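Supplementary Note 3. Input sequence used for the single-chain structure prediction.
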Amino acid sequence: MSRMGLVRRLFDFSRFEGRLLGAVVFTVSLTLIGTIGFALMPEYNLSDAFFMTVITVSAVGYGEIRTLTDGGRIFASFMIAGGIVTLAIWFALITATLVEMDLTQSLKRRRTMNRIDRRRDHVILCGAGRTGLAALKRLATRGTPYVAIERDPAQIEEARRIDPDALVIEGDATADDALVAAGIERARGLIASLSADTDNAFVCLAARELNPDLTIVGRARSEDAVSKLKKAGADRVVSPNSTGGIQMASLVLRPDLTLFVDFDTPGDAGGMGLLLEQVSVPESSEVAGLTLAEAKIQARTGLLVVAIRRGREAGDDAEGFVYNPGSQEKLRAGDDLVVLGPRSSFDELRDVLS
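The predicted structure, written as discrete structure tokens, is reproduced below.
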């Protein structure tokens, strides 16, 4: 970069750094001019000249510390005008900076809300503590659309560190307004992972009222809170201590099974890493109305359909699971397929079903 180009970049007033440097240079230059000018006047030493410059430029109104000649008063008048300009520059710089900061935050919030408004069939994550962040990481890894609600700025930053594209609403998840802002009427599920059981119960109660069809999973710190969260509207309740203990026992009692199938256990399990996943058949799917043999899911993706959960469109008498479905089992829109196979094949399955 040439010397002239460097100067232009340093004094680029479209950038905050350029405006700040310009204000500093102007203030320092005016101070030097004033100090030298007053120092040349009778009875003024360098200390007096600097002090006179400061009180003149800042317009504090101390008056002359030494008697000024007519020429000195004219010089002081120009210094007062320069001081007014200096104060105006700093006032404008500070005001513009505050407005830009507020505007930047406002635009960021607006962009976030616009992205949330476009979300459909997403998961709402209430609380981004340790449990919530673990859930957030899993949702992000799976590519599942989600919206998080968290009021602690530090936890919000941690969530964005895990997933830079995370959509996070800074607010209280127990407030209906926050749930509505997160698009609860369009969501497919909600995870209540706040630190207090009472808050999770309140979230479950409010969420069930706002969206009766929502799948709600609540976190309970104590075993006593499990039944209360279910009464509040939770479809499933997870107790981290209990679930962790069961998982640890399973790793000891069935180590080969955990190496064969990935049950979403954190950490490096190794082994084959086959995934047991649930995938829905959408209304517009080309396989809706076809049998498993006609759909050729296993031949096209290498995945094995181990069960089918009939959707509500099939009628109440059809609700439930069909285990180990035969080749003539017909697929219907709204069905949930329980599929086993390599993780890399599931994107291909979603393309087949879409």
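Residues 266-271, 313-318 have pLDDT under 50 and may be disordered. DSSP finds 14 helices and eleven strands in the chain.
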